[in-house]
Design goal:
Elements: H1 3-9, H2 13-17, H3 27-34, H4 40-56, H5 62-76, H6 89-94, H7 96-174, H8 179-253, H9 264-310
Helix pairs in contact: 1-3, 3-8, 4-7, 4-9, 5-7, 5-9, 7-8, 8-9
Length: 311
């Protein structure tokens, strides 16, 4: 066995990633031992990462949250502040103020019930994100390591393949008058083409893995931003709304003509709640879009892993 053949027989995917092309490498010795195993370890590791991300990152929980937010939006659209305009001595005498106040209070109660449902759902959403984010971050770190290792293997494999082809050209020229040697060159060239197909599959997998990494990071960022909005901005506004609107509804239901029935401040709080709910809905929509994109990349990654394993 020549020194170059011995070197090829000792190659592994990890060693290949650190390999520098040698001018006397023999295509037959290298391909016979390594073509089927180039990047094999990284492909198997990426399969584990892909399956983990599909479970960890794509929970689709924003859909249920968006449903509760939409139900809240429908309820608040029915709140009629004009009912509070039925006041004064005649309204109290005829009972119209009390009747209108009861209707307004019922509307407030309906919104408050929807608001409680949103608050509960948001808390659950936040807990799930907090519990899973650290795990998914570690999985993404593994994905980053594996796709970069695969990139390096493909790069070094391509350089070695280029060196092999150069040697084949030299051998072809040197064996112009030797049919047996020419046949050997053709066989080695065919083996090189097998490696070309393998490297192409690995390169495509690496590119998709990189895309999945970026999209999943965006997804986690958007989920974290939505959790922050729900737990801080929307939660504070919801508490304020419930307190102020509850007092207003109680006064209206009693048929009171007291200063508590001033609607300017409650209307402003109501507008703030509408604004923050709209922002939460926009966050849910963005999250759904990012989840769809990440799911598509992970599906493509799974297909390319299967192709690389079969090659």
């Amino acid at each position: 066995m020549t020194e170059h053949d011995r070197t090829a027989s000792l190659m592994s995917p990890g060693k290949l990633s650190r390999l520098k092309p040698q001018p006397a490498a023999t295509p037959e010795a290298w391909l016979d031992r390594m073509a089927a195993d180039v990047g094999r370890l990284q492909v198997e590791n990426l399969l584990d990462v892909q399956q983990a991300l599909a479970q960890q990152a794509l929970d689709r929980a924003a859909g249920a949250l968006a449903g509760d937010l939409e139900a809240l939006t429908t309820a608040w659209q029915q709140l009629d502040f004009k009912l509070l305009q039925t006041r004064g001595w005649w309204a109290r005498t005829t009972g119209k103020a009390r009747s209108a106040g009861a209707e307004f209070a019922a509307q407030v109660d309906q919104i408050d019930a929807r608001l409680k449902a949103v608050t509960a759902r948001a808390a659950e959403f936040g807990r799930n994100h907090g519990a899973g984010a650290a795990v998914t971050d570690r999985t993404l770190l593994n994905l980053d390591v594996e796709y970069r290792a695969l990139d390096k293997i493909v790069e070094q494999g391509a350089k070695w393949l280029q060196d092999m082809r150069g040697q084949l050209q030299q051998r072809h020229a040197a064996a112009a008058a030797d049919p047996s040697a020419q046949q050997k060159v053709r066989e080695d060239a065919a083996r090189c083409e097998i490696l070309v197909v393998r490297l192409k599959a690995l390169r495509a997998l690496s590119a998709t893995a990189q895309q999945a990494l970026a999209q999943t990071r965006d997804l986690l960022g958007a989920r974290g931003a939505l959790v922050q909005h729900l737990s801080q901005t929307l939660a504070a506004t919801s508490r304020n709304w419930s307190t102020r609107m509850g007092s207003l509804a109680a006064a209206a239901q009693a048929g009171s003509d007291s200063p508590e029935l001033s609607v300017e401040a409650p209307q402003e709080i109501h507008r703030q709640l509408q604004q923050h709910v709209a922002q939460a809905l926009a966050g849910c929509a963005r999250l759904a879009s990012l989840e769809e994109a990440a799911a598509t990349s992970l599906d493509q990654m799974a297909q390319q892993i299967a192709a690389a394993r079969a090659a």
